[in-house]
Write a structure and sequence with these properties.
The protein is an alpha+beta fold and 148 residues long. It is built from four helices and five strands. The protein has a single domain, classed as Aminopeptidase, CATH 3.40.630. Strand 4, helix 3 and strand 5 form a beta-alpha-beta unit. It is an enzyme of class 2 (transferase). GO terms for molecular function: acyltransferase activity. Keywords: Acyltransferase, Transferase.
């Protein structure tokens, strides 16, 4: 298994993997509009500060993705993970942990000091992140508001 920046020729494979993971339990996202999915994915991989990382197996297939952005702030650089996922048929086999370790090594080589992300408390990802060294910031709050 190897973590690398997303090669452009793997974009469609990444999009299909993302769709398969997040259209099923526990997420059940309803990506029925192919154009909207492509816009979302391009937002994550094609911006100036995007850092799309992928986990590739020994057969050169994508088995995981980490889609996020790099930001500069007063303590240095931060990698904000917007989407992190492992192929459904490879979950619960330790690959998520391996992927996070390799992401950490990649970021260290890029002089990035922090990883931040957000998840819901009622999904398995919450406990996965806790087991892998992430801490819940008690003083932080996530707000949302629907545009009327």
């Amino acid at each position: 298994m190897k973590t690398t920046r997303l090669p452009e020729e793997k974009y469609e494979e990444l999009k299909a993997l993302f769709l398969d993971v997040f259209s099923n339990e526990p997420w059940l996202d309803e990506w029925e509009n192919e154009h909207q999915l492509d816009l979302y994915m391009r937002d994550l991989v094609d911006n100036k500060n995007s850092l799309p990382l992928v986990l590739i197996d020994e057969h050169k297939y994508l088995v995981g993705g980490s889609l996020g952005y790099v930001f500069n702030w007063w303590e240095g650089k931060e990698y904000y993970i917007k989407e992190l996922f492992i192929s459904r048929d490879k979950q619960n086999q330790g690959l998520g942990k391996v992927f996070l370790q390799q992401i950490n090594d990649y970021l260290k080589n890029e002089d990035i000091q922090h990883i931040t992300l957000m998840t819901e408390r009622n999904v398995p990802a919450y406990h996965f992140y806790q087991k892998n060294g992430f801490i819940e910031l008690e003083e932080s709050v996530f707000f949302a508001r629907k545009i009327k």
